[in-house]
Amino acid sequence: MSPSILFVTNVDGDPDPENTPPNNPLVLEKYRTMKQIVDDHAGGKGAFCLQTSPMYRRRFFEAPFVEFWRAWTAGGGELTLHPEEDLYCLPQDKHPTGTHYQDGERMRRVIEDAVATLAQLGLAFSAYKNGYHAQMPAIVDSFKAAGIGIDLSCAPGLYWPEKLTDWRKAPLSAFYMSRARLGEQASADEADPVFQIPFGWDGQPSETPRRLLDTHYLVNEFSTHEAMARVWDEIVRRAERQDRPQIVSLLCHTYTMADPIYRDRLKQTLDYIVRHGGEPVAPSEAKARFDSWR
Ligand SMILES: [Zn+2]
Fold first, then answer.
1. Span 122-139, pLDDT tens digits
2. Kind of pairing between the strands at 246-253 and 5-12
3. Do 133 and 153 touch, CB atoms closer than 8 A?
4. CATH number of 5-293
């Protein structure tokens, strides 16, 4: 029997464009479009990022979005806490030299506030994702302490030190991550490590000048259907070669959902993945299945 290959549809719900006044109906329409696609093509299973940011600290924890989160979770989806501390920041609030993710104390407050605010609505985050695929031990400590055990920030192969992105040694399938050696597998004696689900990758270096996500990754906006199908085929071959199950995520963004090119690309790619052995899961199910294999 072929090894299982699970995938999480990893939806980034950042509103775009960033610098225009909030238009909730327009953003909500894109969210609904995304939900319909995930319902129809991935069984409603996936992780939807709920943004908190200097610009929109509470916007997505209020009406009209709360009802959307209820519908999303009722349909089998889960929620990801997504602090966008740099991208969604007015010029005067920007970090002067680096990134706000460096500030462990700030991030602890952001995470605790978001988790408590969502809990008041009777909802909970099951996963966490930073912008820029950044990660820091202090951030991991804070979301773990707030009850979130799964991270979706890992972009294997990427190295962007100014943004705290270093996944050069990351495994290509889900793993328990070391706190001391962030981005690497935890040793057997590490207590309660975080479960990391990386973006699907074919193992080839990114060809963009900054080595960011491109056609070598499962990423709807920076690739094509053909390239994502090719990456998926490589993940299937890897599962067979290693005779080991694989768990990866496919990153997609709601801000493109008004454009039929991106909608069709996502539908076509999800269909391809499901036709070629991929099983859609939400993050908690991915973790439970991984644990059952150990
Ligand atoms: Zn984002």
1. 999 999 999 999 999 999
2. parallel
3. yes
4. 3.20.20.370
